[in-house]
Amino acid sequence: AQSVSQHNHHVILSEAASLELGCNYSYGGTVNLFWYVQYPGQHLQLLLKYFSGDPLVKGIKGFEAEFIKSKFSFNLRKPSVQWSDTAEYFCAVNAGYGGSQGNLIFGKGTKLSVKP
Amino acid sequence: ETGVTQTPRHLVMGMTNKKSLKCEQHLGHNAMYWYKQSAKKPLELMFVYSLEERVENNSVPSRFSPECPNSSHLFLHLHTLQPEDSALYLCASSQDLGLGTEAFFGQGTRLTVV
After folding, report:
1. d(CA A86, CA A81)
2. Which residue does chain A place closest to B108, by CA atoms?
3. Which pLDDT tens digit goes with each residue over B50-73?
4. Rounded to an integer, what distance in angstroms lies between the CA atom of residue A44 and that of residue A88?
């Protein structure tokens, strides 16, 4: 069965530090990859997504992610975090077997705390 | 505000109660979903509806019963739940079942079964 692993449960950074959150998936076929973010008390929202083409994907708020097929990875990065980036981040994969974005397999999430 | 509204936001119910969760989307989408978010576990897809027809049911116990009377509304009827069913239940919608469409999530209903 497909699965998504997020390596860090909780990451604590100071403002202006660089961020990288790991995400690995287990599926050998065509995949579509997503990062969602959930700010405190708010709904899940899409940060960025990869379907095809350039493996370096840019999202909202200065976030980017790189799809490395050989490593089954889709790590999220931001060069300089802000206090407002404090949130929980979820990596998700759609294994492309005909389902929609709603047919997503999620990782357990990584909580990011940014100290001012 | 995503255009997907869930009510109630919080619900406490006994194991013998019957209650319903409601989801409404104002986006004109044709597909709607229920997810379960438990502590320290990944989000789990429960049900998928497209044009009011159920297209997926991921081995969910029968004590959870979905209903989609129209493309704007989705319900999750609950009866004789167990304490381990306590979780955040998220509703989502998307334009259709195509891979190119984005899913929009509601804020969820925090359910506690006592």
Report:
1. 9
2. A43
3. 888 888 767 899 999 999 999 999
4. 9
